[in-house]
């Protein structure tokens, strides 16, 4: 069957009333939580992971995908109206979008962000559907060596290639890797680092860790900044509709943003932020109105928002075809698959095509739902931003702990939440990135498995890793991704990398 | 959220003690890993690759990073920390600790209500006598939705038992 047939079948599955309902719940929750400042898609998915325990695999994955896309949409609303990006991929949107809102053009800014996200999400999801089968074919020739090399590359790009310090990025990654060791070794059944505590035999719960690292760490950090001036929410004045000129200036930016964002998301090279920065720079260079940049240029919202959503869809390419998460959000989605005993990768396309294609098709539907939810109902979401800080953060912690309690109502788990919340707070104070911890925690055991398989086949000879051309190339790329930024930083050229810091997703 | 982390340009005479503490923690973690896997050494099998292999590598990695951190501490390479308010953090930590201790004896609503109130207090909403009853009622509502409607099992206490 061709991709097209599969996609049609997937659409039929996604159109089932129950699945439509899950998608709707997912996008609504995702938008709602995504709008809240300080919570990005990674936290959103982590918070809502336990809610989906009771559902079947297809339904809950459809809901996740909706949450992921919804979080991306919701984040742009916060950036435009509050100038506090809800997620790191919306930082650029805040640059121009908030200026537009202050100039009374908040409506068109929100509209171009929502429509741009829709266009990008649509094109990128279709691209995902058509590219995935080819990557699956390539991935089938991958052995343990190649997988391990690919994971090393992902580790390096997530932790040290971007951000302001190789040292701190790598330290975060190794903390995640160390935590991933806890529990029963998957190949021999030996328990490691569990110190006789039965709660630790299953390993450290991903949900607990993600909630502690993102939601609790962030809340503590914001609380510790003391009473700052209240953020000003810009009211949406005038029409939300875009004028003819707005459309004329936006559509090319949407397409360019998609073209930039999708490949970056699809490469094992970190989160959605990088694409948004590149798109912003491109629009600034190509614009007929460069003087407007910095004062509310609509292209500066349209391009990055499209890039942001296109790379979100792009991230699903390595996740679904290779089982390789390249961002914290994708890592948590991988944990979502694992809770059903599903391992994303080439085999999933063969063993469970209904699920994969249903998921991809439901992304198209979620995208359409989000357009409807975000344009006419934007006023409703804006109300969320008027919640006073004490109640907002009290509510965030309420839901954060609700997720953990729902997954495992034990005092031990809540203790872990508190402990790692404090660790995450400390890491924020000292400028350590958080995403590498989560990626290390989730990808660590998979990388170890592949490495040990590869080494066992070669009877312990480490050189085997370099004897496969694909693996060797990937490892060389990883080494470059480690060394080049080090050189750049030591020459004082690190600012560019700092700006691209992948801090949350 | 990424924080602005300006680098200290002036060469510091004194080492950065906080960074040294971080390095010490990394060394302790590495030590714990090495100690724990030392009992697994014999399980290597004929390929010499066993459950201890990767943990040891990670431990060596952590030791390397600790040394790097110590070097950074002496060169003053660590970013300047912004001033942190301790009080709000204490309020919130107290809330999380209270929830942890109360959830078994008193159930989800009371424990989480206390967390809610203490967190809000950390952010400046200090009229506890008003917020406690409101928070507990809200939490009871949330408990009802998630436990009874979405069948997520949340610990029940005296209040929840009234609704069942």
Automatic annotation (TrEMBL), chain A:
It comes from Neorhizobium lilium. The keyword Zinc-finger does not apply. The chain crosses the membrane at residues 20-49, 61-82, 109-135, 147-163, 169-187, 316-335, 355-379, 391-411, 417-444, 465-488. Residues 20-438 form the DUF112 domain. It comes from the Bacteria. Keywords: Membrane, Transmembrane, Transmembrane helix. This is Tripartite tricarboxylate transporter permease. Pfam families: TctA. The keyword Amino-acid biosynthesis does not apply. InterPro entries: DUF112_TM.
From TrEMBL, chain B:
Pfam families: TctB. InterPro entries: DUF1468. Keywords: Membrane, Transmembrane, Transmembrane helix. Residues 21-155 form the DUF1468 domain. The chain crosses the membrane at residues 17-37, 57-76, 88-121, 128-146. This is Tripartite tricarboxylate transporter TctB family protein. It comes from Neorhizobium lilium. The lineage of its organism: Bacteria, Pseudomonadati, Pseudomonadota, Alphaproteobacteria, Hyphomicrobiales.
């Amino acid at each position: 069957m061709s991709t097209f047939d599969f996609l049609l079948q997937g659409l039929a599955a996604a159109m089932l009333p129950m699945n439509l309902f899950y998608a709707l719940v997912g996008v609504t929750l995702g938008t709602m939580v995504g709008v809240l400042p300080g919570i990005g898609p990674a936290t959103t998915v982590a918070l809502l992971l336990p809610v989906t325990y009771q559902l079947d695999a297809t339904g809950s994955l459809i809901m996740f995908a909706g949450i992921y896309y919804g979080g991306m949409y919701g984040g742009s609303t916060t950036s435009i109206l509050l100038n506090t990006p809800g997620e790191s991929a919306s930082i650029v949107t805040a640059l121009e979008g908030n200026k537009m809102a202050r100039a009374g053009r908040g409506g068109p800014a929100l509209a171009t962000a929502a429509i741009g996200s829709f266009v990008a999400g649509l094109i990128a999801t279709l691209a995902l559907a058509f590219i995935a089968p080819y990557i699956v074919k390539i991935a089938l020739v991958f052995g343990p060596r190649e997988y391990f090399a690919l994971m090393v590359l992902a580790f390096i790009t997530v932790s040290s290639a971007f951000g302001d310090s190789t040292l701190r990025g790598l330290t975060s990654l190794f903390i995640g890797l160390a935590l991933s060791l806890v529990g029963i070794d998957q190949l021999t059944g030996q328990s490691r680092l569990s110190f006789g505590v039965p709660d630790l035999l299953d390993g450290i719960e991903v949900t607990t860790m993600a909630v502690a690292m993102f939601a609790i760490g962030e809340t503590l950090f914001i609380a510790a900044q003391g009473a700052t001036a209240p953020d000003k929410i810009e009211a949406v004045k005038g029409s939300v509709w875009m004028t003819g000129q707005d459309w004329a200036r936006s559509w090319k930016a949407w397409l360019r943003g998609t073209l930039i964002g999708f490949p970056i998301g699809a490469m094992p090279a970190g989160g959605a932020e990088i694409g948004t920065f590149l798109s912003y720079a491109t629009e600034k260079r190509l614009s007929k109105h460069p003087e407007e940049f910095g004062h509310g240029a609509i292209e500066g919202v349209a391009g990055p928002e499209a890039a942001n959503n296109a790379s979100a869809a792009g991230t699903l390419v390595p996740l679904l075809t290779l089982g390789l998460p390249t961002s914290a959000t994708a890592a948590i989605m991988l944990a979502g698959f694992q809770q059903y005993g599903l391992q994303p990768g080439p085999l999933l396309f063969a063993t469970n095509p209904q699920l994969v294609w249903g998921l991809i098709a439901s992304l198209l539907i979620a995208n359409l739902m989000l357009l409807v939810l975000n344009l006419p109902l934007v006023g409703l979401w804006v109300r969320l931003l008027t919640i006073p800080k004490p109640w907002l953060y009290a509510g965030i912690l309420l839901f954060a702990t609700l997720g953990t309690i729902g997954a495992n109502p034990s005092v031990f788990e809540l203790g872990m939440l508190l402990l790692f919340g404090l660790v995450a707070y400390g890491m924020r104070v000292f400028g350590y990135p958080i995403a590498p911890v989560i990626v290390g925690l989730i990808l660590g055991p998979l990388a170890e498995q592949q490495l040990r398989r590869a080494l066992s086949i070669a009877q312990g000879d480490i050189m085997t890793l370099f004897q496969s051309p694909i693996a060797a190339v990937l490892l060389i790329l990883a080494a470059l991704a480690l060394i080049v930024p080090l050189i750049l930083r030591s020459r004082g050229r690190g600012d560019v990398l700092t700006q691209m810091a992948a801090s949350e997703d | 959220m990424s924080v602005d982390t300006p680098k200290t340009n002036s060469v510091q005479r004194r080492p950065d003690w906080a960074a040294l503490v971080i390095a010490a923690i990394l060394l302790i973690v590495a030590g714990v890993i090495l100690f724990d896997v030392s009992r697994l050494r014999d399980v290597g099998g004929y390929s010499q690759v066993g459950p201890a292999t990767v943990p040891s590598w990670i431990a060596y990695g952590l030791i390397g990073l600790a040394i790097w951190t110590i070097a950074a501490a002496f060169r003053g390479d660590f970013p300047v920390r912004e001033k942190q308010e301790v009080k709000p953090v204490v309020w919130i930590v107290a809330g999380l600790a209270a929830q942890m201790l109360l959830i078994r004896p008193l159930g989800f609503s009371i424990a989480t209500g206390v967390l809610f109130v203490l967190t809000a207090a950390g952010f400046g909403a200090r009229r506890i006598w008003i917020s406690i009853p409101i928070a507990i009622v809200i939490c009871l509502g949330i408990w009802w939705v998630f436990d009874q409607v979405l069948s997520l099992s949340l610990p029940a206490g005296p209040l929840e038992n009234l609704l069942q």
